[in-house]
Automatic annotation (TrEMBL):
CDD domains: HTH_XRE
Record PANTHER family: HTH-TYPE TRANSCRIPTIONAL REGULATOR XRE, TRACRIPTIONAL REGULATORY PROTEIN-RELATED-RELATED
Organism this protein belongs to: Levilactobacillus zymae
Domain HTH cro/C1-type, chain residue ranges per copy: 8-62
Protein name: HTH cro/C1-type domain-containing protein
Length: 126
């Protein structure tokens, strides 16, 4: 499951960057880069973000080896679940109460329309 070491080495070699060059860009030692590539240690979040900028890839590509094409997901509906290593619906299977929580304003508008027409109907009945 841990594909980061292979991805880091692959991206570094694809850009013809040495471990020394990468270490100087990240302000770490060459040994730290070597440990990351061997899987003996992992970089902190700050260095992961810097690596995505250096290699111009997404975090999913860097950490999980996903293609950039796979990363094109509607983020308004889906969110990445790292426990399952896949995208899942942001709100899960929506039930009635979830719908109401997200779209309460629809009920307000419906109540206003129904109230308006009931007043209009009661006035015209007299």
């Amino acid at each position: 499951m841990n594909q980061f070491p292979q991805q880091l080495k692959k991206l570094r070699k694809a850009t013809n960057t040495t471990q020394d060059d990468l270490a100087s860009q990240l302000f770490v030692t060459r040994q730290a880069i070597s440990k990351w590539e061997s899987g003996d240690s992992t970089p902190d979040l700050t260095n992961l973000i810097k690596l995505t900028d250096i290699f111009n890839v997404s975090l999913d590509t860097l950490v999980f080896g996903r293609d950039e094409q796979d990363s094109k997901v509607d983020t308004s509906e889906f969110v990445f679940d790292p426990k399952r290593n896949r995208y899942v619906r942001r709100f899960g299977n929506m039930n009635f109460w979830d719908f109401l929580a997200g779209y309460w304003w629809v009920l307000v508008i419906l109540a206003f329309i129904i109230g308006f027409f009931s007043i209009f109907w009661a006035a015209s009945a007299h």
